[in-house]
Amino acid sequence: MRKYKMCMIPAYSLENVQLLKDRVILPYACYRLFGECFSIVTHITGDYPYLSYLEGADLIPLPKDRPHMDAAVSYVSGHSQDIDLLFLFGARGEYMELARTYKSLRPDGVIYLKLDTNIDWANAYPLHDKNFSAFLEDCDIISCETRRLQSFLYKKWLRPVEYIPNGVYYPLYPEADEIQFSDKENMILTVGRLGTAQKNSMMLLYAYALAFPALKEPWELVLAGSVTPEFQAEYDRFCKEFPPLATHIHLTGHISDKQTLYQYYKKAKIFALPSRAEGSPNVFSEAAIFGCTVITTGVDAALDMTDNGRVGRISPNTADVKGFSGELLSLCQDADYLACNFHEIRTYMRAYFDYERLADRLRNLVGLQEMKRRRS
Amino acid sequence: MKIITTDTSISLEESGQNFTLLEKPTLPDYSNVTKRPYFSFYYSEGETIWRRLLSSMAKFRDFCQDDPYLGCYALILRRLYPLLLSDNRAKNLTAYGADTDCMAYRVIQDFMTFLHTGSALTALARSPFSLMALSPGSCSALLYRLDTCPAPAAVCDAINRIKPGGLLLLYTIKETVPVELAPLFSKAVKDSFGPCTLYTLTADEAVLDFARENGSEAFILARASEITRRAEDLHSLIQAMLVGAALSEDAYFIAVTILQQTEELLLSLYDYLENDELPVHANVLKEAVLNYEAEIRRPSSLTVYREKLIQKSEIFFAAVEQEFLA
After folding, report:
1. pLDDT confidence band for B46 (50 / 70 / 90)
2. Contact B294 A360 (CB under 8 A)
3. Other C-beta atoms within 10 Å of A260: how many?
4. What part of B 230-269 touches A (C-beta under 8 Å)?
5. Do B290 and A365 count as a contact with CB atoms less than 8 A apart?
6. Segment A265-274, tens digit of pLDDT
7. CA dist A317 → A148, A190, A281, B157 (Å)
8. What is the overall mean pLDDT for chain A?
9. Torsion angle (degrees, nearest 10) of CA A107, A373, A146, B282
């Protein structure tokens, strides 16, 4: 079986936290499965302690005296023979020259573009721009993160777009295998940058407040993540307005230690995602492998995350507090479903969101590309 | 570019260059010939055809002076002129590629109506599918702006809408034309001035044969037949996978290759598909085959992939049947 020299180049300088996110983890899973070597080429922005999780990966620093992408193009010009499979992340204009340079030097090489997009962004791609269209042509395999988006892009681009969701690299989560449903508590958890317009966090607070009087047992609401000053002010006002609820709602602040975050996933029975817009959120996958039942608004990935509503609940309208509250309440009161779904969602995740399995599919897609090229 | 009209000639002029479009015939009594050659008209004070043609050219000049296709319109009217005068019947003309409210169309329509009140110029919407809405062999001439849709299949569709012996007037202001159309252009009369070029093609038997072979209909039917053939092969292969029949080592690779080709064929027919999710169904089935193949290689395989393969193949084959065989 052929082994590939792999390289991932971000459109912008890579930060430490991004090493464990989809842009690096999926290429890394590919490297572990069918790679000869794997390099991450970027401007250095600080220390990279998470690199220790990625055994075998090389971080290649780009010279600081040139802009990131200029230096990246120059790197590819000089090292094209060391790259059989080039991973790009996001359909960004910054990549146009890089992709062209690589393809001109390595017409036999393969470019895989992971789109990292949502429908709003996808609708705004400058398809009328010849250089941008040429960039998409240069990409041999393109994938998006949700089924809804896949269907949309087929109509818009008239080219194959694979569905590869943001998944989980299980070796990074050994503790997820050990968890039992009995470890869990009556906890509703959300994780994200609280107070940003995208995360719609206030809706969760009000949905919880609406459900609260009807709850037969006490449920805690934990909001994990950094907090905007506006949200902090709203939260303080909310607690004054509803004092009986205040003791049940907890803001953790920013959590940098993954183990601390995993403790919350372990305890939570329900993971809430009240976002206005999301592509395929990484936090969903993390919550789900810990057996949290997901309740979400109708974001792009809602149907995929819940297997069309089987392993989670969807309240489609992002402004419908009452609807979201109703779904939340019905989940809180359905102990049997939560217990059963603890297993169901984990099995579902293992089958469709496991990066090792997704990398296996990607390996076959790369093989197909090469065969197609040989034929033509 | 300018249109210069005199009492005896019409010409185009640009950068000191001149192109004579038409000269007034030197028939002794030509100035008395009116739009309808009935006996009574020889005694009336009607406007002559030549005078009306001069007036039409002047309208091009006035209404389309900023239009880069001005020269093309003049060249078109020059080539249409003999056709419109060829007999005393009403003519149906069709125009494709410019906006439907293009002033040049109005000028041509006005000239045609002058010659015969029953003649009509129908302007089509810019989508090449509008050509398919016309009955085959329904127009005497078709004006086709090549720059709007240079696709050879669309040009052939246009030819298929022209009566045998009628004219296709292909015009462009671009320097290059699609190489696939070279066999057609070799049969055409080319008029060129400045950036404007007109190819006039008579719909004779050879041209119509070429158009039939290369038009959308032939293309669609050939592709549809390829898709159904591949779907049949695939169906047998997937059934064999599901019943656990002994398969060659590369059976899965063959299946996904067929699916990848099918996906591309479906995308090439995308604009004609009733079910526009069909290419996605092909992709999802490809995904299901790849997942199933990867899983049976694993020591502890999950049954969900088999169920998914059954489910996705049923959806795909039902959709293919509905689209192509129902």
Report:
1. low
2. yes
3. 11
4. 253, 256-257, 260, 263-264, 267
5. yes
6. 999 999 999 9
7. 16, 18, 18, 46
8. 94
9. 170
Q: Using CB atoms, which residue from A150, A154, A364 is nearest to B290? A: A364
Report how far residue B106's alpha carbon sits from residue B80's, in angstroms, rounded to the nearest whole number.
Answer: 15
Transcribe B27-42 into DSSP letters: -TTGGG-BSS--GGGG
Nearest-Cα residue of chain A relative to residue B293? A361
> Which one of B267, B277, B294 has the shortest CB-CB distance to A357?
B294
Give the A window 7-46 contacts with B, CB below 8 Å.
Answer: none
Query: Residue B206 CA to chain centroid, in angstroms?
Result: 18
Compute the distance between CA of residue B157 and CA of residue B212 in angstroms, rounded to an integer.
8
Instruction: Name the pLDDT band for B290 (thresholds 50, 70, 90).
Output: very high
What average pLDDT does range A181-202 have in this prediction? Answer: 93
Q: What is the pLDDT of residue B28?
A: 45
A355/B1 Cα distance (integer angstroms): 63
User: What is the tens place of the pLDDT at every residue in A297-336?
Assistant: 999 999 999 999 999 999 999 999 999 999 999 999 999 9
- The distance in angstroms from the start CA to the end CA of chain B is 55
Q: What is the ipTM of this complex?
A: 0.90
Give the DSSP H/E element, type plus range, for residue B92.
strand B92-96
State pTM to two decimals. Answer: 0.81
